Structure formats: structure tokens, C-alpha cells
Amino acid sequence: MVMLGWLQGKMAKLKELLQKSENRICADCSAPDPNWASANIGVFICVKCSGVHRSVGTHISKVMSVTLDKWSDDEIDSMVEVGGNSQANAIYEAFLPEGYRKPHPDSAQEERQKFIKSKYELQEFLEPSLRIVSNHPSDAGKQASNSHSASSKSEIGMVEFIGILNVKVIGGTKLAIRDMSSSDPYVVLTLGQQKAQTSVIKGNLNPVWNEELKLSVPQKYGPLKLQ
After folding, report:
1. Dihedral sign computed on CA atoms, order 167, 173, 175, 179
2. Domain total for the chain?
3. Of 157, 206, 210, 225, most Cβ neighbours within 10 A?
4. Dihedrals phi, psi of 129, to nearest 5 degrees
5. Domain check: are 31 and 95 in the same one?
6. CATH no. for residue 194?
7. Which residues of 17-47 are buried (b: 16+ CB within 10 A; e: fewer)?
8. Which residue range is the domain that position 183 belongs to?
9. CA–CA separation, 70 and 61 (whole Å)
10. Is 185 in contact with 175 (CB distance < 8 Å)?
11. CA–CA distance, 209 with 140 (Å, rounded to integer)
């Protein structure tokens, strides 16, 4: 009971932070009533911008729902320490060019994608001395050979998302033997060009995952495939 009360107190701090006037609009496009957040950046964002944040990768932005996800102590503390959208934007938009037009709630997804990538991934509006743009050697060495892959990622990033699909994978029973005497099962969900995968459970024909997987839902989408 003490632990439960402690966790509820932490979430209350997060929701209290969300209720501040500066956080009642999306940090990136000013859409009203954002219920998503980037836990590592410390901003509250709308569902459309959350889809773009997901597309740049969790190493740049870890997207979480304020109302649906389970937050860790560190994640909540990080949000509280930043202080909200105004404080974060004062850093990430410190060198925003004069007259630059940020996306608005009805902006095209391509415009939203370009701004969010420039702001957080490329850090173009950050004070130069604070910029930490990661360059992966493996990416540089394979730039030409991966041109098709890069194009595909760009296309995914410009898709307009209308929501988030949460799928809880419980478990499996009496699965087929794929190795000599057992199997190492895992589940893969596919929605359009997105994939999400559970952990691999070694040597178990009756695995239990109890894992929640998330996929962004584009405006045009086909069936959810489970493998």
C-alpha cells in the first residue's frame, strides 16, 4: 500500500505539471490538450507530433502516454526537472531564426516532420556549444548502400498518424517445436511499414510475455499482422 501511494504521488506530480498553462498546448505545433510526452526531452506533445517523435527513434525521443503508460520514477523526475514546454523550448528553440514559422495544429505531416527532426535530432536551433548530434560510423560507412533504406525511413516519418495502437501480448500455449526438442518463441506485430517485437523466451512451448507493444496508426492502414 505504501508503494502504491508513492507511485500515485509521482503520477500526480506529472499530471500537475501537465495542467500548467504552458503545457496545455503541444511543444511543437501548439495543438491544444496534449496527452503525450517525450520523457527524455521533457516536453508534452500532441498525438500527431508523437507519431513523428516515434519515427526519429527512442535514442532521440522516448514517447509515452501521460494517461495510458506506466512511468518509472526516473522518467517522472526527468519531466519535473525540465519543468515543462516553456523551459524546454527556451533551450531547443534558443536559436530559432527570426520569422521562422513553426508548425501549427493543422500543418501537413511533412512540415511537422521537418521541424521536429531539425529541432531535436539535428539540434539546429540549439545553442551551438550545447549541440550533441550523434554520428554513427556505421551509418557513414554505409551511406551509399543504405540509400534505399534511408528513403524508406523518411517516407515513414512523413506519414500522418491519427493515434496509437496498444497491443498486450499475453502468451502462447502448445506452440510448435522449431528446434530439436523445444522452441524460442517471440511475437512480431506489423502495421504498414512498422514492426514491434516482444522479447524472446528461450526453450518454452507455453511462453508468457504480458508485454505491451505500441504502434502508431497512420491515416491509411491495412490489417494488423501477427507472427
Report:
1. positive
2. 2
3. 157
4. -70, -15
5. yes
6. 2.60.40.150
7. bbeeeebebbbbbebeebebbbbbbbbbbbb
8. 161-226
9. 17
10. yes
11. 37
Identity of the residue numbered 29? C
**CA angle, corner 20, sides to 46 and 22, nearest 5?**
60
Looking at per-residue confidence, does 59 or 133 come out higher? Answer: 59
- Residue 212 corresponds to which amino acid? E
CB atoms within 10 A of CB 55: 24
Q: For residues 91 and 130, is the Cβ–Cβ distance under 8 A? A: yes
- For 24-62, how does the pLDDT look when each residue is reduced to its tens digit (9 = 90+)? 999 999 999 999 999 999 999 999 999 999 998 888 999
Instruction: Name the residue among 42, 52, 50, 44 with its Cα closest to residue 22.
Output: 44
Q: Any bridge partners for residue 226, and if so which?
A: 189
pTM of the model: 0.60
Q: What is the pLDDT of residues 199-218, one digit of tens each?
A: 888 888 888 888 887 777 77
Are 165 and 224 in contact by the 8 Å Cβ rule? The answer is yes
Q: Are 125 and 119 in contact (CB under 8 A)?
A: yes
Q: How many CA atoms lie within 13 A of 13 on its CB side?
A: 18
**Any idea which residue has 536559436 for its cell?**
95
3-state SS track over 138-179: HHHHCCCCCHHHHHHHHHHHCCCEEEEEEEEEEECCCCCCCC
For residues 27 and 89, is the Cβ–Cβ distance under 8 A? yes
When computed from its CA atoms, the radius of gyration of the chain, rounded to whole angstroms, is 20
